[in-house]
Amino acid sequence: MDQQKLRALVFEKTGVRIDVDDPVFALVALNEAVLEDAVERHIARIDAASQALTAQLAGGHPPGYVPTPSAGPVRPISTQSPMVTPRELRLLGAAAAIALLSALVVLGGQAAFRKPGLSAEQEQALQRAAKLEQAIRKLDAPTRAQLQAELQK
To answer: Is pTM, for the whole model, over 0.85?
Structure first.
């Protein structure tokens, strides 16, 4: 690549000015030389492989090759298989049965060991509410009406 083009390209992309004697040009030259060497090696390998292939096709087969006759008619190979085999269906059914049984065991355990009724705090709150209700009934009518109005707010 021309040094002036490279300088212009670097300035356009990065905004950095490069001098002609900057060491980056030595790296560019080194990269070009390494790339050129690698490309030449690959081209040589491709040429050698294509010549060997051409020679093989031109001669047919390598010397000493004698094709053997087939042992009999060739049977077709099955290329398609069912989506789900019977064995997989049995395994799937067993897994579903185990999952259902596990769910039933868990639900049965919860039903057997759960604590019915209210907690101690809930029972105390209900007793306190009953006592307050009795105390409100004992009040005179105007005070009871005023208290009921306050509780409604």
So the answer is: no
